[in-house]
Each structure stands twice: as structure tokens, then as C-alpha cells.
Amino acid sequence: MASTSLSKHCMSSRHYVILLLVLACSCFMVNILNSIESTSNGDSLEIGHKHKLIPMETLLPRSKQAKLSAKANDQLNFVKQNKHGEANKVENEHLFDNKTGHPNVGEENEGEIKENEAEIKKNQGEVKENEAEIKENKGEVKENEAEIKKNEREIKENESETKENEEEIGDIFHNKAIFRQDYKEMKKKFKIYAYPHEAKDAFASIFLPERGKPGGNYASESYFKKALMQSHYLTNDPTEADLFYLPFSIATMRNDRRVSVGGMKNFIKKYIDKISQNYPYWNRTNGGDHFYVACHSVGRTAMDKAVEVKLNAIQVVCSSSYFVPSYVAHKDTSIPQIWPRQGNSMGLSSVKRNTLAFFAGGINSHVRAKILEVWKNDSEISVHFGRLPTPYSEAMLRSKFCLHAKGYEVNTARIGDALYYGCVPIIFADHYDLPFNDILNWKSFSLVISTLDIPLLKDVLHSRGLKQYNELQSNALKVRKHFQWHMPPLDYDAFNMVMYELWLRHHVLRAPL
Questions:
Q1: How far is residue 38's CA from residue 88's CA, in Å, rounded to a whole number?
Q2: Which sign, positive or negative, has the C-alpha torsion 161, 163, 166, 167?
């Protein structure tokens, strides 16, 4: 019994010891498992009271250690990624509203946001209105583009005509540089010998200059003589003379009862005979280096008995018509018929000119009769034959264009009048060799129109346009000084321009005396 009890007791004790060992092993394994989890986060296994760190992998077989290490690395990377994402999420969580997903801007900005949203809606409404207006404007633009294209075609059609007209406008001189250079040479070298006469001579008034100021419609003849006698061109030594001046006055002879128009031809014939007998100068060239000046129209028949004068001498005349047999173009030259006026009209470029064209004069030619017939009742072209309702000067100042229409002769004083008052001359005078035609470009400051085109006058003037009219008038103001007489003469005035025309005609080689 005793042994049996002892054996039972021993077995119970043995079981107890085994149970304790199992429990101890279970606790040990639990610690190991906990250590494994800690080790996956980079921890080490703690064993013993001294807390000696033992890597968990060393307690397992090598094959399992490798698998466990790979698994632990994967878990470690996953945990790190989750931690980083959660950190960013937590960091940015406060920036967004969880319900709306809109950014959290704070209560203080919500009012401003609402105002901005309202303004945006308002602007959107305006944009829609503008879009509708833009569509409407696009329609108008298309209509305007069609009209513009139409106008462009018309402009192109007119451009060619405008270019043709503008080509006529240029410098007032044919060649300004040559003229200026030659003019200076003339001023230095040109010499004139005037046949001498004394005050006691029976016909001294016909040969000597007027004592007072020249006046009247034919004053140019007297102005030239007075200016020449006061100029540096005059020489008392015939050996140095380039030309010889025959100083008789046609206008004075016409008014002298001893001569008059009927005796003028004989008077001139006797005069030429006398100088050819008393002086050697006429005979050496048969009068080729001699000249005279005449402005009255009777001058063109005064040389009928002195044929050498008409054929050889230089005739400086106002009635310079190619149609008249007594006038020889290029040998003879024109002098402007100028009514004498003192001073200059000022501010002509700013004068308001409402009348398109103006003419006043007697009906003494078919040209003037045609002008009256066509334009007497026109609202834009003012034509008067007889007494004017306003002063002549005012009528010219109010007009853009002023007509020069031939009367008995091609010449009148109306060109000089027009230029003096800043009015662009229109010249209806066929075959007229215009004054200073060798020097001045008449197309730059006037319109020369055939008498056949009188019915087309208004169309011609309107076709010129404002730009061309302004250029014509500007040039007309520039040439005014060339159509004015001065005592004593001034540079480039009418006297010096006539002298330049003579300079162009004087013989380069003078015959020896």
C-alpha cells in the first residue's frame, strides 16, 4: 500500500513537473512570438534579467530565418508607406472640408467669396449681352466690308486718274538748279547797250523812260525801260555789250498825235535806217543781236515795214501768239502784262474761297462769248460781263480759280491779277506763248485748257480734288514775285526774269566790231 501510494504520489509529482515545464515552455514561446513582432519593427529579442539583446533569427533554423527575414522586410516597407501616407493625410486634412471637398478658407473669406461669385455671375451676364452685341456687330462688319470693297474698287479706279493729274504738279521751275546757276552767271556777265537819246530830242518821250510811275494796262513796257536804265546790266561801252536795246515805246507812239497808230510803221522804219547808218552794230548781224519791248497789241503790226526787225531782232512782246505770223517762237519771247500794284496781299493761303471759278470782262472774242453762254447762270462759276456787284479784288479773293480768256489778243492782265490775289489761273487762250515759258513750269501753278473744253470746265475743276488744288495754289503763291515790277529791280522779279529770257537768246559768239 505504502509503495502503491508512493508510486501514485511520484506519478502525480512527475505529472506536475511536466505540467510546469509545458507552462514554462508556453510562456517562453509567447515571449518569443512577442519578440518576433517587435523584431519586425526593428527590435531585438530580450532574454534574461540582464536584458541581453539576442536577434530572434538566431533561435530559428537558417532556412526559416531567411524566409522570416524577407517577410519581415516586406512588412516593414508596407508599414513605412502607410505611416507616410497617413502623415500626409493628417497634415492636409485641415485644408479641405470633409463634406464639400472644397478648400477651407476660413469664415472671414466666405463673404468675399460670395461677393466674387455674384460679380462673376453678373459678368457672365454681361458677357452674354456682349456676345449678342458682337454677333450683331459682325453682321454690320460684313456689310461694311462689302461696302469697303466697293469703295476700294472705286478708289483704285480713281487712283490712276489722280496719278495722272498729280504728275502735272511739280516744281515751279523746269530745272531749278540750272536756272539758279545760270541766273547767277547772267547777273555777273550780261551787258546791254541802249542807243542813246537826249531830252532835247524831238521825240525824247518815245525813247526815254517815263518820269513818273508807269501806270495803265500796258505798264510793263514802261517798267522794263525804267528798270533797265537803273540796272547794272546797262553799259556805255558797246564793245562789251551782248545785246543792243531799241528803246522806242509802242504805247507812247500810239498816244503821240505826231505818230499815232497810222504813222507807227513809217516811224520805226526810219528809225532803223538811222541807227544802221550812224552805228555799225545793226549791220554786223542785220539786227540779230538787237531787241525791243512792246506790250500793246498794235506792236505786232508796227514792224511790217521794218522786216529785218520782225525776222531777225528779238521781239519781247505781251501779244506772244504762235498764231500771229509776226511772232517767231524761240527767237522772240513773252513779257507778262501786269497791272501795277504796290505791296503784296497778305494771308492769301488762309482766305476762305467759296467760289469755284470767276471771270469778269467785256465780250470782245468768241471765247468770252462761249464762257458767258455756258456758265452765266451757274451757282459755282461766277461770270460777269459789265459792272461787278462787288469790287474786282474781293471777287478774286473769294475764288479758287480765275479765268484768263483771250480778248482781242491772247494776252490780258488777268494772269498777273490772279496770281497777285492768290487765285489759280485758268488759261483759255490757244496758241499763247506764256510768259517765262522757258523757265517756269506752268502746269505746276495753273490750268491751261483748250477753248473747245469750255463746256467741260466744271468737270475738269472738280476732277482735280482738294489736294491738287492746294498744290496749285501753293505754287501760284510762289511764282507771284516773278510777275511783279519793282523800282529799283529786285532779284527774280519780272524785270530780271525778262532779262534771263534775253540771256538765253543772246549770241554766244559776238561779231567783232
A1: 25
A2: negative
Identify the three-state secondary structure at position 399.
Answer: strand
Structure-block grid coordinates of residue 394: 474781293
Question: What phi and psi, each to the nearest 5 degrees, are found at residue 86?
Answer: -65, -35
How far is CA 458 from each of CA 401, 413, 418, 424, 426, rounded to the nearest angstrom?
11, 23, 18, 14, 12
Closest CA to 360 of 404, 329, 305, 322: 404
Which grid cell sits at 407? Answer: 480778248
Radius of gyration of the chain (CA): 59
DSSP 424-458: EEEEE-TTB--TTTTTB-GGGT-EE--GGGGGGHH
Query: Could you read off the pLDDT of 448-503 as tens digits, one per residue?
Result: 999 999 999 999 999 999 999 999 999 999 999 999 999 999 999 999 999 999 99
φ, ψ of residue 211 in degrees (nearest 5): -75, -40
For residue 162, the tally of other CB atoms under 10 A from its CB is 16
CA-CA distances (angstroms) from residue 160 to 169, 367, 431, 462, 471? 15, 32, 29, 16, 18
Assign 147 to helix, strand or coil: helix
d(CA 474, CA 178): 22
Are 380 and 356 within 8 A, CB to CB?
yes
Tell me if 371 sits within 8 A of 405, measured CB to CB: yes
Q: 209 with 219: CB under 8 angstroms?
A: no
Q: Are strands 314-317 and 355-360 parallel, antiparallel or unpaired?
A: unpaired
Can you name the residues that pair with 57 across neighbouring β-strands?
A: none
Amino acid at 8: K
By the 8 A CB rule, do 340 and 215 touch? yes
448: phi then psi, degrees, rounded to nearest 5 = -100, 110
- Taking the C-alpha atoms of residue 320 and residue 334, their distance in angstroms, rounded to an integer, is 6
8 Å CB contact between 315 and 250: no
User: At 290, which helix (H) or strand (E)?
Assistant: strand 290-294
- 365-392 confidence digits (pLDDT tens): 999 999 999 999 999 999 998 888 889 9
Q: Is 302 exposed, middle or buried (0-12, 13-18, 19+ CB in 10 A)?
A: buried
> Is 203 exposed, middle or buried, given 0-12, 13-18 or 19+ CB atoms closer than 10 A?
middle
Show the cell assigned to 476. Answer: 501760284
CA–CA distance, 460 with 384 (Å, rounded to integer): 21
Angstrom distance (rounded) from CA 253 to CA 251: 6
The three-state secondary structure class of 140 is: helix
Residue 193's DSSP bridge partners are 244
Q: Give the three-class secondary structure for 142.
A: helix
SS3 assignment for 151-187: HHHHHHHHHHHHHHHHHCCCCCECCHHHHHHHHHHHH
Q: pLDDT by residue (tens digit) across 1-27?
A: 444 444 444 455 565 656 667 666 666
Distance CA 56, CA 144 (A): 93
